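Design review, sub-item: ligand-bound model
Attendees: FS, YL, KQ
YL presented the inputs for the FE2/S2 (inorganic) cluster complex:
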Amino acid sequence: MSDDNKDTAGSPEPSESARGRVIGTPSPARDKALLAEGDISAPAGAGEQLDEAAAKRAERVVAAFFLLAFLGSVAFIAYYIGWSGRHGGMHGVTRARESNFWLGGTMALSFLALAVGVTIWVRRLMTSKPIVQERHSLAADEETRAGFTKDFLEGADDSGITKRPLLRRTLLLAAAPLGLAPLVLLRDLGPLPEKRLRSTFWAQAVEEAHKQGKKGVRLVVDGTNKPLKVSDFAAPGSMITVLPEGIEEHVPEEQVLTQTAKAVTILINIPEDEFKPAKGRENWHVNGIVAYSKICTHVGCPAALYEQTTHHILCPCHQSTFDATDAAKVIFGPAARALPQLPLAVEDGYLVATSDYHEPIGPSFWERG
Ligand code: FES
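KQ shared the predicted structure:
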């Protein structure tokens, strides 16, 4: 019988030639045999047969996870191509949410399966031996740097780039458009918002109301859609979220969520003696009842917390604080401008908005755009 055959039969002391040869995926026990003598701790013989079978099983499990990762990636690409082909980009919150779910889900599945596979591979199929790596200085020594400088200058001189301005300039000209190539990727951010972020559904609703000879559009309570009377909101210190009436009837179904998110407004009843109407906005409130956009001007979280005693509106995301008594000016935090204010009036006892916000709602970026 040859040395190799003896090793296959489970000899406790494999020969030198057998130790040096690895065919296929070595078992953990065999890996240990490749270590230095002092590191061998796994039992051989019958134990090795058991480890080999376990290693095969682990190998199949790892392969299954890698296959799953592959399928996740293929699903990601297929969905992206199919989805952007169908919709030509991102439109509306509903479609964005759908694409986030599928793109995020397939990518997460792919990375998760890959990570699980690699983890099982490392834990079940690899030995754990201490590895020591010495740290070396990363900087090259003086001699290497001097050699590099010399070679570089010689190369530059040899190329004639300093002596041949025509070549130098045309090379720069050829390379310039490549620097702009990343701009093409910006297309994937979706269509330009143009004027769409400058107005909200309040504008459309008020226009409709004016056509019908009304003063403005009624405010309805978010959640119940009940029009709000001044008498229903008489307690100073209260705060409520409102929307324009008729949003669901007047916008296409897929736009309802987007338009609602943009038009969402907080209504606050401030004691009149504490309220300081801003210049030019003296008639925008009703007995201290004032309306501000609920979308924080920092990065757009809902500024949904209200402190009754201080009349501060707080955004929970990064703690921007706005003074409700003073045109919702910023008194703390990263927001760069006040919350836009909605002009209010009373019609037949109901609170109405007489126009849209006079400035864009949401993050300050859009105001500059
Ligand atoms: S989004 Fe409101 S403070 Fe940042």
